[in-house]
Design brief:
Shape: globular
Number of strands: 18
Number of helices: 2
Strand content: 35-45%
């Protein structure tokens, strides 16, 4: 009976119990790849010089790293910023700004990862024609069949690039 248990254990499919890598770099060719020399501590991404050298930087000098269930941008100088996930990757830079996280709030950052609009919103859309629609008090709704999650409720309004409220461009 003991031999049968050992035999069954040897025939059982191997289960990979290894934890996923702490950090993964996003590459255009191969998607997410493990990245040594990187860790996330209390929400802050930290990379050593060798890890930064292995990143794929875009034409704005930003590279994407996935860690702690979210994407982060890393500049060539080593500055990092947690950003929202959009279309299964890090948020896009639109009109020179991207949406990043400050705690649980949304702020807007420039391509140098300097904060351009304070993190005072529960959600915000990208800038278009110099304004963005944002909300406070909104919450995540139920994802649709494609995995898109709507934002529901709350107060919706528009802001300019300085974070000031502006009139609705549609006149509503």
């Amino acid at each position: 009976m003991r031999r049968a248990g050992v035999l069954l254990a040897l025939l059982a499919p191997a289960v990979n119990l290894a934890a996923p890598p702490a950090c993964q770099r996003l590459t255009e060719e191969d998607g997410l790849q493990p990245l040594a020399g990187c860790h996330l501590e209390q929400g802050r991404l930290s990379l050593d010089a060798a890890a930064r050298a292995r990143l794929d930087y875009d034409n704005l000098g930003l590279a994407a790293v996935y860690a702690g269930d979210s994407f982060h941008y890393v500049s060539r100088q080593g500055r990092t910023q947690s950003v929202i996930t959009w279309d299964n990757g890090p948020d896009y830079v639109e009109e020179g700004l991207l949406r990043g996280r400050v705690g649980e709030r949304i702020a807007y950052f420039d391509a140098a990862l300097a904060q351009a609009v304070p993190g005072t919103y529960d959600f915000g859309w990208p800038f278009s024609d110099g304004i963005a629609q944002v909300c406070n008090g909104c919450r995540r709704g139920t994802p649709d069949g494609d995995g898109h999650t709507p934002m529901e409720g709350g107060e919706w309004f528009h802001i300019d690039r300085q974070g000031r409220r502006v009139a609705d461009p549609t006149g509503r």
